[in-house]
């Protein structure tokens, strides 16, 4: 059997498994079906167990039960936060940011009376619990730290290709467009091959079903949120492309929020090379998925009937003919991503430099020196990062990188964050919180990219996509800031000191 036939066989088998698993899963009852049915028999199951499951599912969604579950979740979260901050009361301040963000979401919500508080609370609770498992729990932290280390090693192989094409001088001098962005080509090829084989669809089916079952969002919203952990904001909607034109406004908004609240695996290598913790980046992406569903429904609650159901959804397969074709497509797609990143950075840094000069000149006329546009915005972000748990003496510096991320993009923010870490300008906890806060695609360039991508998939919905995308931009930023707040509560002092040392070593290594 040839290599081509083996690849096709693996692909067909994996996609068949994905579709089979997706079609048989119907919320919680399907899991229970698999447990009870083989042991009790068809008749007993149909007459007794299945009706009991249906009644429980119906009861669990009643108003009274929803209120009880929401109160229970709030009490549990409060108890955990108090326990975590028993030796360091300043950590309690980190919960102020999520409370403030929920208030902002309520005030600016499109339909306040229709807010599904159960979905909002469950999404935030899942984001909160992921933070505990990955950051606070020793085993979970070890697993993600190991995954982060392996990811850093994996992305380092892109350096070999960059050295061959660009030469040692350019790569060793740490030239951004060549040394940093080379990793995007490598990972894009790997992602495209895995997508062709159906591996990515398999994991998306599992994660999407879990999000749908645990939070209560629709299939398309859940699958897209799970996809954004691995893929970019323009790639994830491709999985549900046939259904984009049939989505409600609320579903479109939630899909946009998921795109802004996470980052693609293709750019993780670039962030790691700047000095960002690989474990924290992976954690932030995972936490962003449930958070995006929660804030997506808070800012734009559902008031329409969803036209897409679990029993008529199938994940899109790759359109490539062979594995080699998939690899070539991945490399070609990476070129567009790299060009988009470079053009956006050049354009927005130039624009910010112009605004800085105008503001500085204006203040000099008034007799005030050294005032810049980005400096003013960094001060505006200071109260926000303070609520997220950053010590006041680091708030201006962290406010600066958050402002850069919001106005330019996260690449510039991570570059300056790496310099601050290397120079010992901020403490380790501030660096950890900033790593989470910057981990998202919410910036002006991405706003245009997402609107264009979704409009191509659903040309008749362009006006609605544009309308919801602007609100989703702010909601997506809030998701990243909320993840940063939870991280500030759970990160331990011994851990941040160790991480800080690793980041400095990595930054020094890459700067040679």
Automatic annotation (TrEMBL):
Q: Single GO molecular-function term? A: nucleoside:sodium symporter activity
Task: List each copy of the Concentrative nucleoside transporter C-terminal domain by range.
Answer: 280-488
A single Pfam family it belongs to is Nucleos_tra2_C
Q: What is this protein called?
A: Sodium/nucleoside cotransporter 1-like isoform X2
**Keyword tags:** Cell membrane, Membrane, Transmembrane, Transmembrane helix
Annotated Concentrative nucleoside transporter N-terminal domain ranges read: 99-168
Q: Which residues form the signal peptide?
A: none
Q: Which GO terms describe its cellular component?
A: plasma membrane
Give the UniProt family note: Belongs to the concentrative nucleoside transporter (CNT) (TC 2.A.41) family.
Membrane topology recorded in Swiss-Prot or TrEMBL: Multi-pass membrane protein
User: In its keyword annotation, does this UniProt entry include Transmembrane helix?
Assistant: yes
**In terms of one coarse class, where is the protein primarily found?**
membrane
> Where found, per UniProt?
Cell membrane
Q: Which residues form the Nucleoside transporter/FeoB GTPase Gate domain?
A: 183-277
Q: Is RNA-binding one of the keywords UniProt gives this record?
A: no
Transmembrane feature ranges: 64-83, 90-109, 115-135, 174-197, 252-272, 337-359, 371-390, 431-456, 468-491
